[in-house]
Each structure stands twice: as structure tokens, then as C-alpha cells.
Amino acid sequence: MRNVAIIGVGYTPVFVSKRKDVNIVEMISEAVDAAFRNTNLTPEDIDSITFGNMQTFEGLNLPHLWASEHIRALDKPTIRISTGGTTGMSTLQAAYYQVASGLHDVVMAVTWEKQSEGDSQVGLTGIVMPEAMVMIQHGMDLFGGRGMAGMGGGSTGAASYQAMSYLHHSGASPEHIDKMAALERTNASKNPYAHLRKVTTVEDIQATPFISWPLRYGHTCPTSDGATVAIVASEEKAKKLADQVAWITGVASCTSDPTTANLIEGQLTDSAEQQPARIASEKAFAMAGIKNPKKEIDMAELYNGFAHQSLMWLEKLGLCKEGEAHKMLDKGALDIEGELPTNASGGVFSTNAIGASAMNRPAECALQIMRKIEGEHQIPKKVRNALAHGWGGLFQYVTVVILSDEPRKAK
Amino acid sequence: MERKVAIIGQAQTKHSEDIGMPRERMLFELVKGLFGQFGITRHDIDTFVLCSNDFQVGRTISNVFEDTPVGAYMKDETKVEADGVWAVTYATTRILSGIYDTALVVANSLGGSEFRPYLIMDYQLNPTYDRQLGFLNELSTAALQARSYMDKYGMTDAQLDMIAARLLRNAAKNPNALQAKADATPGYVAGSDYLYEPLRKLHCYPFTDGACALLLASAEKAKDLTDNPVWIAGMGDSIESYYVGERDLFRSRSTRLAAERAYKMAGISDPMGQIDVAEVSTKFAHQEPIICEALGLFEEGSGGEVADKGLSEIDGEMPVSPSGGGLGAYPFSAAGAICVAECFRQLTGSAGDAQVANAGAAVAHGQDGFCAQHNAVIVLSKEEG
Amino acid sequence: MAFEMGPETRQVQGTWDVTTYRYKIEGKGMKLLCDAMKEKKIRGIRCNECRTVYVPGPTFCRKCHIDIDEVVEVKDTGEVGTFAVLMADMRGNPVDTERVSAQIKLDGADTWLGGTIEGIDWHDVKIGMRVKAVWADNPEGKLSDIDHFEPA
Lengths: 411, 385, 152
Known about the structure:
heterotrimer; A: 411 residues; alpha/beta; Peroxisomal Thiolase, Chain A, domain 1; nine-stranded mixed β-sheet; two-stranded antiparallel ribbon; B: 385 residues; globular
């Protein structure tokens, strides 16, 4: 396979809850234009385009068709990828494979979401709509909560199951979730492309009410409008086109069964178990030639719709021992200046344009490696290897991308 | 490209108006059957590429409940949300990268029984303008395209009926087709109701429940598993303007560009001479000449003449859609994958009554969008090349 | 880098009507379960190969990728796999009484089933705690026939 690098990233100027001044395609083209500006490329330099979002969130089917000219795709190969929360990274991986295979040299991955144009609750409920209907037909008391109550209160309820199980098995306390939340929100305050940008203390988080124990409002992510574009290139092209690049040295994805809501056919796995994270990360590490991820990975950008997840993912992805993540948090190891800066960007927890969320992770890693971070969240130490992680589906999909400052060493 | 990719097997449902079972069961049986053909298990598959559409499944993240029936539990899996031909190109790309040796493509839709296709198609429209106006929809744009071609090149309604009749007769030779009639005549087609003049019901794809699975492998793996592989010799795709009014509807620019890319990769300079059979994804009968001409299989504007002379019959000079194509069955998402699967059947000599004699190279096509805005082309060959 | 949003664009309405779908959903496992519940029993399906017991039972095994149909009865006792305490309603308003919903691994089953836990202060609920089903007086073959679970 050929070596592939991210040579540039483009964001919309802001990620906010409502971009009322632009429509969908105008918003996407802002990020596309930014990517061209940041790389000094023009549409003619692009061989192929990969495109992804979660279309039910806007109620617009196959949006790449409408957006074709706005993403500068006319007369070019274009493919649409959609895999739920992992969409952003799946779309980047598609671009990676197109270059690694030798089919194309320069590929642009376009990911976005404009959640204000749709109804996020409809989008989320839509995942299990038919199953929920069957449960109700069979006497599930959806609102009263008697009998078999299914998910225990929407997506936050399902996440609470996961958080509870994680806390139990790791020995972390609910206060660790508050602490992680405060750390990431404060990181986000330094990131001009974050949505919720406010220096936040543990007390601020603890002042928010509980939705579903052990999760509070302050542990949940926002819904955002925004788009992120990454341009990837072959080694030969990357060297010609860019001074600083970040190499994609490992890619992997894995699915399990729909945990937390396999309401009608029996849920097989604990949603805090996340075996796919183990499988995918091991595969990606092997590909990147990383033997000791705990030492060799310098930073992590993790997909955390809820604040407890950063801690959980660190363990499940093999970046620390089981039950160690909260101790690292206490030591300050997860701070921007720490040993393993985690979600220096503020994470999905602070910025969540869903289709772009799993793209922002590798995009941030790449910018950190290139030392091109805008804002105050540049990691001071040299970043050699970074882990970007995506998560989605009904708690079952995991994607991993490893980014490095050098190309993959040929075996 | 360092590697070669082969298709080593295919499986399709018997496409129908109502498959009569849940989607998950349909996919499980389909994939189990395909694994059975080769005596392999789900653990022999390196990467699963699914293909379905959230609006057509009526579910956010349509593949949430699709990956366990196809055997992807704890496996590498992704989803293409477009026509199935893109799932095939993506699976091929993944194998070409050298990271995977085997890939399973599974594409499906229950467009016959689970949703109303023309209604769902409206969600593709620009929501702030075209969807509000209500003028453009799948049928009205197809009718514009048909009229555009017929007026430009003088193709008659009777010739359009001939294309549809031929496809319906071909479909009768395809055990999986849904809309078929062994003795279909142009008169039979002309006897069906107008849906949107000049398009009659029998010029249009049937609403179909169905699925298609394809097993792909790298050269070494392919040779382990079968004596009869079909090689992916070239692929290409291209997209054009969303705005129907900005395009020449009587020709397909994006199909032409897609074909140029695929032919270049496959080393094909004379498609008329080098391609033996084509399976094209036609949702409507009039799209067949437009797409075939863009593929370089016939001269531009020759649709009427091709129909008159029967050049695209199974025993004609350039057999097109011996399976009956989109008129025989059109499960969304799967339709393009079925074209690839039908080319596979032709090139492995297993197309039964629809078999084209001495087929060595084939071209498969898939489309998305109104008036085939986005097109992809795959060239398949018996020769490893 | 101060970015200022431009003036608002016009907005128009659109809907995605999920009621237009006629979903086909596997009903066998749910029917098996509900029929059993009429007799205050819980039944699922076991895979012959890996011996995994699913409740409700699917028609194929996710791990082995084979058809499965061996009906097995599991106990109405089990342990708490995980739980959450609902403190706000669907609209985000605080609830009057906290509700413990849990995922419970019934004895004999390998899958988790949803249920509420009553008869215990929510602060005292623990993962791994033993619970048993409390049945409705007159089961009708519905999921609500198990009224709730309580500590065993």
C-alpha cells in the first residue's frame, strides 16, 4: 500500500448551534474553501471526493447530489459514506483507501452536519423507531416506565447505563466525570472552532442537574452546525504540495451488535465493554508499527458524546490499563501539557456537528502534528503519533486512525 | 496498481414486490447462501461493505441492524450510501490498498413493500426551493429526459416501447426478475397507462424488494476459492450538476466521463469492439440509449435505429441488459450491484437462458439522482489482464 | 479572527414522515417471550453451537452466523448488569420520584433485558446485585406482565 498523508484541513469559520445566515450547501462550501485556502490548492488539484453526513438529521436524502457543485465535485469521482457517529472518520478512511490503493493521488473528504435544520430527537429516535414501535405494541410502558422500560430515558439513559457500568468496573467516581467534563470544556475555550467555549470548573459542572444518574446536563454534548474538510495525498504529491503534513499510518474499523437498544432480539454485550475499540485499535497499532501504544501515542482525540467516555476510551483503546484513566486524570496527565493530552480540542463533548464529529478527531491530530493549531490549545510537546477515534451506531461502531509525523515504515 | 481484484461469487434474492420477511432475515439467508457456495464462514471475510439508505430503510443509520445478519459481528464494516455499484468500487478500492484480501458487498432495499419510492425520492430535492415548488420529482424529471432524447434524435414512442418490450422479454429469462413477460411486444407496453407522458408504467422500474451480495478477493485469494473468477479491470465514476436545467438531458456527460476513466484503467480503446455485453442500470426505458451511447456502445442518437434492428438483443451485436436490467427489478441501493452480479453470471457462463455467447468482457453501470446525475462504471473481464 | 454571522436567510418548512413506512420486524422472539409471560415464564432461544442464550430470541446466532431455534426457559431471577436512575423527564423537567431502570442478566440468559427496580432506595442499587421479577397479578402476554424487579 502507498503512504498517505493529510496535507490540510478546512473548518467552517465557526461551529455553533444555529447557522441561520447560510443554507446547507453554502455552509459546506465554507469548509471546502477553507481547505483550499489552507493548502493553496485549487479544485483542479483534487482527483476524487468522499462525502459524508447523517442525512436524517436534516431530512435531506443523498445531499452530495445537491451539493455536487458546492463541493467542487463536478465531473469528478464522488462517493457518499454514512456510518452513523463514525461517518466523519469513515469518510476520511474512504479517502485514505483511494490514495493507498493507487487509484487517486489527491482526495478531498467532506463531512458536515447542520443540525439546526432538522430535529435531532427525530434523528436519534429514528435509529430504533421500528423496534420501539414493536415494544410498545407488546405492552412496553414507554412513558410510565413500568415493566420492561427499554432504554431508560432516551440516548442519555442509554449512555447512563454505559457510564454506570464503566464507573463500576474501573473504580472511577462520578466526580471524575465532572472533572473530565471541566477539563474538556476548558480546553474547548482555547479552540476557536469549538462550539461551547467557556472556561469551566468542576463546580460549574456539578451545578447542572442530573438527567439520569450518573449523568448530568453538564456531561452531555451540544448539537452543532459545522463542516470539516480534509485533503489527503500520496507521498509523492504530499511532498510537492505541502511543507507540513501528518501521515495516516493506521486505519481500522469494527462493529459489534447493537448494544443498549437491541430491544427485540436480546442485547449481547455490555455497552461499556466496547470490544470493537480493542479490536480496531490493535489492528491500527500493528499497521502503524506501534508496539507499545501506552508509550508511543503522544495524544488522543476521542469521540465522547458524553463526558465519561474519554476515560473509558483511553482504557478500551489500550492507551492505559483498565481502571487507570481516572488516575491519569487526577495526575494531570490528560491536560494539554500532560503526558497524554486527551481531547485538547474539547472533544465531541464540546462541538458536535455529528457527521463531522469523527472527522474533527483526526483533523485535530493532524493539525497538532503539523503544529498548525489555531487558538491556544497547541500541545507543547512534540507529537509523533496521535490516535483519533470515532464511535457510533447503537453504541457498536468504532473507527480508529493513527496519525504520525513520519510515513509508515515499510515492513 | 500492484494488485488485482476479482469477483468470485454473487447471490441475489428472488426480487419481488414483497419479500415477505424482515430485512435482517433476508440478508442473513442471502449471505449464508453465498458463504455456502464456497464453504467459507464469516471469519473468512476481511471487510464488509454494506449499501443501504437511511430514507429507504426508514431508520437513522440504516446499517445498525444489518451488520450482524451479514456476519460482521466484531468485524471490519462500513457503509456506502449510494447505488450499490459504489459499494463494489469501494470494496475493490479497499482490497487494492493491500490491507484486505476478501470483501463482502451487501446491498438491499425493500422499495416494494416498505416505503413509497416516489415519495422518498423527493427528499433528494433541494429542500428550500425545488421541494417546495413540487414541480420536480422522479417521474417528471424522467419524462423531461425522455422527451429531450426523443425530440433531439427523433426516437418514436413505438421505438421506446420496443426497448421496454425487449427488457421485459429478457427479464422473463432471469429467475430473479420481478417485472417480466416472455412474449412482451411493443403493443403490450403501449397498452399500459401513462404515468407521466411520454412514460408509461411499463417503461418504468418496478418497486422492488431485493438484495444482492458479492464476494470479492485479491488475486491470490481468488485463485484459492474459485476456478472461475471475474476480474475487475477498470472502474470510474463522475457526477454532474444537480440542476436538471443545466444539463443536456439527451446525453449523459457523467456516464461518459465515468466510462472514460474505467476504460482507461482497463485498457479499452474500442468499447464497441472490446465489450461483449453490458448491464446498465436503467430506471426508465429511455435511459438505456442515453447511457449506452455515453458508454460508447452505440453511436450518439442511434436509440431508435438500435431498437429497430434489434442490435441490443441477447443474440445481437451488442447485448444490453440480458437480465432485463432496471425494468426487470430495481431494488434501490442494490440495483447497480445487481448489474455487476449479472455481468459476473454472463462472464462465468452461468446466465442460463439469457447467456450471451462467448462473453469475455462486460461493462456494468449504476446511477443515482434525478435523470442519472451521478454515474459509475465497472469493466469486468475473464482475463486477469 | 472574529467571525460575524451574516443576516438570517429565509426559512421554509419540511417534514420527514416516518409513518409512511411499513416496517417488517422479526416478531418470533418477541412472540415466544410474550406467550411465555402469560404463564409467568421467560423463554428465549439457544444457539446449538456456542450455547449462547438470547432473550428475546433471534432467528440466527450473531456469533456463529447460523439458524437457531432451540427454545429454552430462563429464570425470572438474575443480576443487575448496569442501571441508570432517571431524574428528568423527556422534556428535561425534574421528575417527582427517581426511577431506577436497569439492564438485567437473567439466570440462564447471556443477554440483558430492560426493567425497572423498585423496593430499594436508588442510592443502594449496585451492579451485580441479585434481583427477581415481580409479576402482574393477571398476566396478559405483554412485556408489562413483569411489573418490575426487586432485590432478591
